[in-house]
Amino acid sequence: MARGSDRPQQRPRGAGTDRSTKASGTPVMARPQAQQTAGKEGPHGERSGVRPVARPTRRPSLVERRRRQRLVWLFAGISVIAIVAIIVVVVASSSNQNANCSITDGLSCGSAAPVFTLPQVPSMKEVSLSDYRGRPVLLELFATWCPHCQRMAPILEQLGTANKNKGLVILSVLADQRDHNAEGNAHPGTTSPQDVEWFVNQFHVKHPVFYDPQVANAVTAQSVIYKLTSFPTIYLLDKNGIIRASHAGEFTQADMQTLINQVV
Hints:
- With about 260 residues, the protein is α/β, with parallel strands linked by helices.
- It has helices at about 60-100, 145-160, 195-200, 220-225, 255-260; strands at about 115-120, 125-130, 135-140, 170-175, 210, 235, 245-250.
- Among the domains are: about 65-100; about 115-260, Glutaredoxin, CATH 3.40.30.
- The protein contains five helices and seven strands.
- A hairpin with a 3-residue loop joins strand 1 (about 115-120) and strand 2 (about 125-130).
- The radius of gyration is 51 Å and the shape is rod-shaped.
């Protein structure tokens, strides 16, 4: 027997060790490698080289659209109501102010009071209406002969005392050229600073009283400028010199206080 016949026959390399074959000899399909389309994973789990997929925009449903529409109409309605309410308040306020102007032929409420500069009795020092700007003013136009003015003089003093802490200023301006003896006199005399001083002393007037040197002038007299209709004539001015109320003729303290409350 030849020497080489005792050697075991060598198997082909890899025989019996093929991992693709089971012990029974049935072949097994090898798993394909995963495709490298997802990109590499980063240290924090993110993947590079991957384009994010855009999500489709969700259109609001019919119910949502109707709900939004109702909210829009609701806010619009509230806005309209608020605007109408503001207009009503402004108009009502203006109407109330105009209602307090009882002098139909006089200066209207809401207009600026004409500014004057007149001598104050008895000092005859000139004072301007603008000097009282920033304070409410009760302005009286009177005549020394007028019985209504004479009866109202103490009431004005009481009103001045009652509203002193509210800053009210009471001013009286002579508005007729006849003197204090004119009542029932066919030939009345002419007024003067002394005539006005008589009135101040006779009726214990404490508030400022002014003499108008142009009282007989048909154009520049304060009685003309303020459109005097009767004695006494009262104008209530606010702190800015705007007429807020007016009254012609006699008055009670309570009624005048109601008008004063419009400006203090």
